[in-house]
Amino acid sequence: MALSGLKSNLEDSDSDSEPEFLQYKVVILGDGTVGKTSLCMCLNEAQFQPKYKQTIGLDFFVKRIELPNSIHVALQIWDIGGQSIGSKMLNTYIYGAKAIVFIYDITNYQSFVNIEEWLQVVKTTYSSNEIPHLAIIGNKIDLFHMQAVKLDKHNAFAEQNSMYSYLVSAKTGDQVFTSFYRMAADLSGVILTSNDIESSQKVIKAEIISYANEEKPPLAKSSPVTVAQEPQVKKKKKCSIF
Ligand code: G3D
Ligand code: MG
Q1: Ligand (nearest to CA of 36)
Q2: PANTHER family annotated for this entry (predicted)?
Q3: What separation in Å is there between the alpha carbon of 205 and the centre of ligand 2?
């Protein structure tokens, strides 16, 4: 994709030192409770909210990302909140988005099945020659031992629908920044090296829990969660991106 983003000075336009940003609208779609708001908050490096509050209406925020060669991107990320698949407002929200992120909860099979319906809504908004960047995100990989969606199903769906695909945890921050970093690069036509991708990956802090008097919970065979030693992430309130 060419450098076709709307150039905008999001900061003080009087300042010569402020970089110009390529700005893109990104819409997050998915069932209630899959972690849309948590993902946005995590990306925004805000506190991970342990209490669930169904979002009313729509929230959006701007995430600035610096790509190699000092290319600055501003992703305007829209969280569709409590809107259901049947909502008449959805097409209006989706309109103009350069990227759509479909998110499901890896412990909730139905939320994965419903991605197909969310995709149909998107298809009614775009003509076939202007389909935006599409990504599918399986959230809550910190709960990998409760995984209800097999990896090959996730991969097959992503491939069939030409979607970028990620497994993340909005709770620990694992892979959250990287997925949006890669999206920003694709939208602005920047080719990332494996080094660029690796250095975008944030270190995930893991605390070791002692199970001295308890039975250890089962460990996922190949959990993608990046941890220091044993792959058990202690319940913590903060999304650890640093
Ligand atoms: P939504 O915006 O898609 O409706 P929320 O979803 O972001 O409000 O999250 C719904 C619930 O899932 C919340 O739990 C939230 O804390 C939890 N959650 C979100 N992301 C993750 C994750 O990556 N891992 C885990 N373990 N939980 C996550 P509560 O219990 O507060 O309702
Ligand atoms: Mg929400």
Answers
A1: 1
A2: PTHR47978
A3: 25
